[in-house]
Amino acid sequence: MTDFFTAEMLARIQFAFTVSFHIIFPAFSIGLASYLAVLNGLWLRTKDDTYLILFNYWKKIFAVAFGMGVVTGIVMSYQFGTNWSVFSDKAGPVIGPLMAYEVMSAFFLEAGFLGIMLFGRDRVGNGLHMFATAMVAFGTLMSATWILSVNSWMQTPAGYGFNEDGQFIAVDWMKVVFNPSFPYRLAHMVIAAYLTTALVVGAVGGLHLLRERRNIAARKMFSMAMWMAVIVTPIQILVGDAHGLNTLEHQPAKVMAMEGHFDSHPDGAPLILFGIPNQAEKRIDYAIQIPKLSSLILKHHLDAPLAGLDTIPDDEEPPVAIVFWSFRIMVGLGFAMLGLGLWSLVARFKGRLYEAPILHRASIVMGPTGFIAVLAGWITTEVGRQPYTVYGVLRTSDSLSPIDAAAVAASLIGFIIVYFICIGAGTFYILRLMNKSPNAPNIGFNVGPMRSTGISAAGQIFASDGKTKMSEEK
């Protein structure tokens, strides 16, 4: 056991732990910022106060999630110096400027306009407030762009050279930023963020529809979320397929691990649905598979040959079991999301979207699956890149700081304790906000004027007996 928990392994576990907590908040805030911009724009265009109610409902949740994402992101950056100083020294001339651009452009844009979005409607007017909301949404997308460029360069390095000290240097910045996997990974991640947000919004809408079917705001958010699920999920599946083909071209060992192909298949590879990877014996035990379907998916031909891990040196193979199962979790949840979207579409055409309690309960169950799928996707990507930090060039074992295992273990334990306390408290607060009805009074920092109907507070939409005073289909 002590041979397993080396300084390198503990440093990898620590980074995996902190990045797993961090990624769920940007994945949520990217989608939620765009959702807030859409809600604000729809209110300005239609003057339907339901959109304003939802904007004020979700902006407070966004503020908490954004803050937690900032804090967890800062912790990650410190680890580059404490645990991965050799990587920072060697790759810093390339990735350092890109990460600085993310802070100086995207983060400053988000932080600069966030206060106006949260508190400034009555002070700056609706036009400037809409601009600030759009800038926050644009800032989150720009932040994702820079971070995905950095990570994609580590996956598919391009446009680089080396100086006399053995450091990476940028020879062509356009090739560094727009490296071969970047467009696919950016599209896949941003769409994942939108789906994650849609599932959370749908879960909250489903919860409140179970409590009060006539809740207009709950109906609106549930309808919008289900439209996102049914439209965006098929797009994500297609983008994921294109991303997989790109990965096969540039990181074949990762795809071999994802597919569980220990052996090469010269006349068509099977699609292994399930099984138990046995890396020691180089096989999948108890495999359930469909003949030649993997070749059809990856090469678009049933008899296309596919190489296996038998063509990869043992010391360059990724941990197959982790990659194999995390990939299946991600794909399985993706098809579950598609199923939920199609189910909602059938209910919508039957006129029962708001009167389908089983669908509403299913949406609640599916609420956290976006986060799980994002985590599974990142595990597939990062573990599948092993044993490299910069794929094919810089090994993880050569990237570590000269640090003892005991020091890494102590900081890891500290992170676990602090993260579970602080992030647990923040998550509990977010869940409490979501548990409140979107028509409850004082749900946001300020409700703002409601000019279209003259209603002065969101709570006045419903009478004390729970019956709506407004049309159900407004």
Describe the protein.
The chain has 474 residues and is mostly helical. The protein has helices at 7-46, 49-82, 85-119, 121-124, 126-155, 173-177, 182-211, 216-250, 252-259, 293-299, 320-349, 357-366, 369-385, 405-435; strands spanning 160-162, 168-170, 271-278, 283-290, 388-390, 394-395. The strands form 3 sheets. The chain has a two-stranded antiparallel ribbon with strand order 1-2. A two-stranded antiparallel sheet has the order 3-4. A two-stranded antiparallel ribbon has the order 5-6. The longest helix has 40 residues, at 7-46. 44% of the residues are buried. The model is unreliable at 441-474 (pLDDT under 50).
Main beta sheet strand tally, sense and closure: 2 strands, antiparallel
Average pLDDT over all residues: 86
Strand order of the largest sheet: 1-2
Radius of gyration: 24 Å
Q: What kind of assembly state do the chains in view correspond to?
A: single chain
Which key features would you list for this structure?
single chain; mainly alpha; globular
